[in-house]
Amino acid sequence: MEIPRSTPLVEAAKSHPDFHAAACDLFLTALTTGNTVSALETRYLAEHNITPGRFAVMLLLGVEESITRKPSQLAEMIGVTRATMTGLLDTLERDDFVRRAIDPNDRRSMRVESTPACRELLKKVLPGYFRLLQAIPATLTEPEQAEFIRLSRKLSDGLQLAENKFVDRAIAGHSAPPLSNSYAEA
Description:
Elements: H1 6-13, H2 21-46, H3 52-62, E1 68-69, H4 71-78, H5 82-94, E2 98-103, E3 106-114, H6 116-135, H7 142-171
Antiparallel strand pairs: 1-3, 2-3
Helix pairs in contact: 1-2, 2-6, 3-5, 4-5
């Protein structure tokens, strides 16, 4: 996605007197930083032939051998629809990373568990993944990292409020797309 430079966006915002130009910088900085981090994660995982969505499911199931979950639980935990989770599980099962079985306590539902292949791949992927996670904030001091986390959480809370406003507008008959989750790819 091509992101507009801050100068043209600030210029365009001048026609909106109630808009603060600093919001443009904050928006563009958050957007480009998030896109860059996402691209780094995607590129690293692609070296192991997995996507971030598949990796999230593998982590939820593969850390311990005895973990089993319902597909609906997995979908809720990573913030995707049940349909998206079905697609993720289809590809993970096809590649022998997960196994689906009927829940012995409720024959109407399924349980999902990791396979030895999943756990083996995680053993190979996680060391490099953790090195990547450490490298991303390496230019920040520990206090700066703590401040970044605090401010990011505060911004995230604000985004939830903004999403609620979109929902309120939709209920009132105005169209507004909901904010999406980056794991919604299969």
